[in-house]
Amino acid sequence: MVREIYLAGTTGGTPALPTDLTALEERARAVLTPAAVGYVLGDAGTGETGRANRRAFTRRQLVPRMLRGAARRDLGVSLFGLRLPAPVLLAPIAAQTVVHAEGELATAGAAAEVGVPLVLSTGSSHSLEDVAAAAGAGPRWFQLYWPSDREVAASLVRRAERSGYTAIVLTVDAPTFGYRPTDLDNGHLPFLHGHGIANFTSDPAFRAGLPADHDGAAVVGHWARVFANPALDWDDLPWLRTVTSLPILLKGVLHPEDARRALDLGAVDGLVVSNHGGRQLDGTVAALDALPAVRAAVGDDVPVLVDSGVRTGSDVLKALALGADAVLYGRPYLYGLALDGQAGVAHVLRCLLADLDLALALAGCPSTADVTADLLAPPSWG
């Protein structure tokens, strides 16, 4: 991608969108409605957790090594038998039609185009079957918000398995919505306006709970009763294992004891260290800071991913050096979606992968397997 841009520049061509992935937020803010800005950019409470996520990355510094023979780089990693072109998956983000009419369909198309797996949110604005069709042969996982109705939960998981999703990512840090002032000040929750509920309105188990003469208000009311499940506890997890043979990852783990307990139950195959991008509990530890202890708690053989605050190729390197097998990449691709639909998402992903490729070369790492803890400066250097 970098070569293509420079070659185009010889005849006056320049990229339509910024290649600085941290500059996309302000560009997206300018094209979004106030309600969309509040939903997409807003964090919980004072935003301290969101800021902590970025500080955790900027606080750590890379110490590149020289003369390592990195002329050819292998960005690939293997997860659950799937060989990925890079240690990057698209994080699940709900209600994407808030920023673009095609929403998850455009995101799925871009992910397939670039070869990066999509993790589709339960709160998608398009049904998981329609998103699977848009993704074609592209790899995809399904993120589950476990509804309070087990029949609906089982139906969603089975639909995902039938539709070619190859892992289930159970999010456990959202038993209820966090306190998000930007949404509250706008009096706006996208789901109550019909965004992000397509997997429910298309689900037979969900629809079975609707009255025969239901209208739109009844559908939203039923969704509000079913969507959240604050009663969920550890004893429920083995049941999910009986519903599907797909790998199950637990997303939202920060404490090493929770990581150990999840594995001890025998119902979980991997973990995602996450604080929901700062959107749930304000004042939470940064996900990157929690990563090393979680990795130490579960050992080297359990797939551990991380999200929350990842923005650049160097960020990905830092996450790998601290023990992650891969990252989930969130808001920047949504900014790309807002700015230019599928092409915008593809642009963001190509920029990230180009940045990561060059970061590997400049750090002296011929492959992601060569990224180890000694790539980071010790705290005493700070």
Can you write the helix and strand succession as a string? HHHHEEEHEHEHEHHHHHEHEHEHEH
Helix content: 40-55%
Domains, number: 1
* Largest sheet: spatial strand order: 3-10-9-8-7-6-5-4
Largest sheet: 8 strands, parallel
Uncertain runs: none
Q: Given this structure, which CATH class is correct?
A: Alpha Beta
Task: Report the radius of gyration as a whole number of Å.
Answer: 20 Å
Structural class by sheet pairing and helices: alpha/beta
CATH superfamily: Aldolase class I
**Record field, number of beta strands:** 10
CATH architecture: Alpha-Beta Barrel
Share in β-strands: 5-15%
Describe the structure.
The structure is a single chain. The chain has 382 residues and is of the alpha/beta class. The protein contains 16 helices and 10 strands. It has an 8-stranded parallel beta sheet. Helix 14 (287-298) links the parallel strand 8 (270-273) and strand 9. Helix 15 (313-321) crosses helix 16 (331-363).
